[in-house]
Design brief:
By secondary structure, this protein is an alpha+beta fold. The protein contains 12 helices and 43 strands. It has 5 domains: about 35 residues; about 140 residues, Methylamine Dehydrogenase, Chain H, CATH 2.130.10.10; about 140 residues, no CATH class; about 150 residues, Methanol Dehydrogenase, Chain A; about 250 residues, Rossmann fold (3-Layer(aba) Sandwich), CATH 3.40.50.1820. The radius of gyration is 27 Å and the shape is globular.
């Protein structure tokens, strides 16, 4: 054991010394340096608020190994709750590596998630161990089941049991005796209990698919029937002598989705009651489900196939009967995510208040994203926030004092601030974030709402994370200052980002962010690199830390610009976001192109040197810009692009485009492949053959179309790399080096 700790310490010290020496010797910012890991800003990582004491815990890795620390707010000190030596299983020499952990309800035991395996985007399979804080004992849960097969393990409310999923079945295990009870028996690759298929995970962010009742006697769970979903085959040519295929259950546009239903299983007798929720299971989705506190009832959210009709049901877990308690329709789509899409990461279950008598919904039905209170049995609808501004996300409601805390920025859609509003007095929203914290401010509230973890950054300053006390926003402790990171990058003299607004010939005003070269000379003309995305899943012109990559491009002699077109999730009202409905590829590319035409008229812009790049939706945008507006864009690098919208998954594409049997022409008009014949400039297409999200099929179809019209282009294929370029060894550095080399060759840098 001591040898292990000593080895870790020496390796860490050597690594730190080597990194510092290398960084000190690097006078110029380079691509190799950016992606070497030497210039990474500090990050707090995941923290967990304690329910029964005033403080929070974090998983950390010290020179001794993995440990869990508690910050006690009242004592104003860090305390070690779990030390590395506590995490060494009997008969082993090294501690468990902690991928994640969760507390028992009484906070006397920990569930430690380790030895994890990737499931699509995230590592959600692994092994679980229970650590008793008082007894200092460590025992494995599900030890008789296959290694790294357990998913989403969680304690029962009385702390005596742990439930989990393994190989599509739901289990419960007694912590004291390790007696395992299998609650479902029909789980297969097609019948999925307690977790989800590819499409639900990717597009609804559904992974953990079961919930304990408050009395610990029942578990509500999703069952996904993917029997009729066709497999898309990912071909691997390089990892064995003979090629082989990996099947992915993937419902394409126009294909029926998996059927979903929700069951409630009794822990004692293993009987399951299936909730009776009306509607064809293959023409509806059930993306959210939760227990009503201290009741035998659940709230279940249902969306129709086109995702423009939401129903929230109050379901009886005993009889299975259901009643609609909230209903909403929209001409476009309804957003079930209760968080700001540009700042993902918060829980978007419905907030249940008044002891289970009411819940909160976030809706755009009055033209802005606002919060309504709804009676648990339907009716008694009450608008809690009002005004011509969007709620980006809400954090906490103090029912006793009558305050609702939320994130918004009524005057600047590129920024975010904390506000609160009184539910008792009609005196408008009160800004809580102090004026000096300009940029993007995000918060993680304590359960009682008295404290929060506050993270602030802007385009020119990396994140600073602090513990604050509310409502005065008093800083108690700086958790991450990034001071050493700022000192390390100061030597590279990064150019500053600036923001602008530009109005197109269509009367559309867009937010933009621009970085000019370090030695910018207004009397010269510079080339522009546009970084694009432009679909409803992301906002790019945000006043948060930009990192080093775009700064590097600017230092080489480029003006680097990103802009948000209509349809992006900017907090500028419903009409801004939903004007793109059935027009992805059309309205967003036109906004970008028309704004670029205005930019081309600026005195310091070289209109003949315009390049563009993007990944995923940004790759699609890049293709659309080169194909639809070849007179504007001379060079483009398109990564992992959807070339044909009919090749993408049904949940995402049908949400924003409708269903193809009603308006197939919209899918065709929005697809870059339709206009590939117009290519005139320089195009580099990049894709990974292992992409389970945007299939490599898109690129091969595009190749055929470009070849058909004798359009010359360049191609880079990363074998078996997924939608994330990070999954290939060396792929990140290779891609960004390739990207820069290609753009600089065809769109030379520097002012003229």
């Amino acid at each position: 054991m001591k040898t292990f700790f000593k080895t870790i310490t020496v390796v860490l010290l050597l690594s730190i010394n080597n990194l510092e020496l290398f960084a000190q010797q690097s006078e110029a910012l380079s691509i190799d340096l950016i992606f070497s890991g030497l210039l990474q800003e500090e990050q707090l990582g995941d923290i967990q608020w304690m329910k029964h004491s005033t403080g929070f815990t974090k998983n950390t890795f010290t020179s001794f190994g993995p440990e869990i620390q508690l910050y006690n707010i009242k004592k104003k000190e860090w305390q070690f709750l779990v030390k590395s030596e506590d995490l060494i299983p009997e008969g082993q020499n090294s501690p468990l590596m902690i991928a994640n952990y969760s507390w028992s309800n009484n906070e006397s035991q920990l569930l430690i998630f380790t030895n994890t395996k990737r499931v699509w985007r995230q590592n959600t399979r692994g092994d679980y161990w229970v650590f008793d804080l008082e007894k200092k004992t460590l025992k494995q849960i599900g030890a008789s089941l296959p290694e790294s097969s357990l998913m989403f393990a969680k304690f029962s409310p009385d702390n005596s049991k742990v439930a989990y999923v393994s190989q599509s079945n739901l289990y419960v295990e007694d912590v004291a005796t390790n007696n395992i009870t299998q609650l479902t028996n029909d789980g297969t690759a097609d019948i999925i209990n307690g977790t989800f298929d590819w499409a639900y995970e990717e597009e609804f962010d559904c992974r953990d698919g079961f919930r304990w009742s408050d009395d610990g006697k029942k578990i509500a769970f999703w069952q996904i029937d993917a029997t009729d979903i066709k497999d898309f085959l990912l071909i691997n040519y390089t990892d064995s002598l003979y090629s082989f295929a990996t099947p992915v259950q993937y419902p394409k546009v126009g294909q029926d989705p998996s059927a979903a239903k929700i069951g409630v299983v009794n822990i004692d007798n293993k009987n399951t009651v299936w909730l009776n929720i009306p509607g064809d299971a293959k023409q509806h989705y059930l993306p959210r489900m939760q227990w009503i506190p201290n009741e035998d009832n659940l709230l279940v959210q249902q969306l129709n196939r086109k995702q423009n009709h939401l129903k929230i049901y109050n379901c009886d877990a005993v009889s299975g009967n259901s009643k609609v308690v909230y209903e909403e329709k929209d001409d476009a789509w309804i957003e079930i995510f209760g968080v700001d899409l540009a700042m993902k990461g918060l829980n978007d279950d419905l907030t249940i208040i008044e002891g289970g008598k009411a819940f909160l919904v976030t809706t755009e039905k009055d033209g802005w994203r606002h919060i309504y209170q709804i009676g648990i049995d339907g009716g008694n609808e009450k608008l809690l926030t009002a005004g011509e501004y969007d709620i980006a996300t809400y954090y906490h409601i103090e029912e006793k004092s009558g305050y609702l805390y939320f994130n918004a920025s009524p005057d600047n859609a590129t920024q975010r601030y904390l506000y609160r509003i009184s539910l008792k007095e009609n005196n408008g929203a009160e800004k809580i974030t102090p004026e000096e914290y300009s940029g993007v401010n995000l918060y993680n509230f304590s359960p009682d709402g008295q404290y929060a973890i506050h993270t602030q950054s802007n385009a020119n300053n990396p994140p600073v994370t602090s513990l604050i006390q509310l409502p005065k926003h008093k800083e108690i402790l700086t958790l991450i200052s990034n001071e050493s990171y700022v000192n390390r990058i100061a030597r590279y003299h990064l150019p500053k980002a600036e923001f602008f607004k530009i109005e197109t010939s269509d009367g559309v005003q867009m937010d933009g962010r621009m970085i000019k070269p370090e030695d910018f000379d207004a009397t010269k003309k510079y080339p522009v690199i546009f970084h694009v995305y432009g679909e409803p899943w992301g906002q790019t012109a945000v006043d948060s830390w930009i990192g080093l990559w775009n700064s590097f491009l600017a230092k080489q002699g480029y003006i680097v610009i990103t802009m948000d077109n209509r349809g992006t999730p900017s907090i500028k009202g419903r009409e801004w976001r939903k004007s793109i409905y059935r027009k992805i590829g059309v309205i967003n590319s036109r906004d970008q192109a028309m704004a670029t035409k205005k930019i081309q008229t600026w005195d310091f812009i070289d209109a003949d040197r315009i390049a563009v790049y993007g990944w995923s939706g940004g790759g699609s945008m890049t293709l659309n810009l080169l194909f639809r507006y070849p007179e504007i864009y001379g060079t483009g690098v398109a990564g992992a692009a959807v070339a044909n919208q009919l090749y993408y998954d049904n949940i995402y594409q049908e949400r924003y485009m409708g269903v193809p049997w009603e308006n197939k022409e919209d899918f065709v008009q929005g697809s870059p492949i339709t206009y590939a014949k117009n290519l005139k400039g320089n195009l580099l297409v990049v894709h990974g053959t292992g992409d389970d999200n945007v299939h490599y099929q898109n690129t091969e179809a595009l190749i055929n179309e470009l070849v058909l019209h004798n359009k010359q282009f360049d191609l880079m294929i990363y074998p078996n790399v997924t939608h994330s370029i990070h999954t290939g060894k060396g792929s990140v550095l290779h891609y960004y080096t390739l990207l820069y080399n290609y753009i600089s060759e065809h769109t030379p840098p520097g002012g003229k």
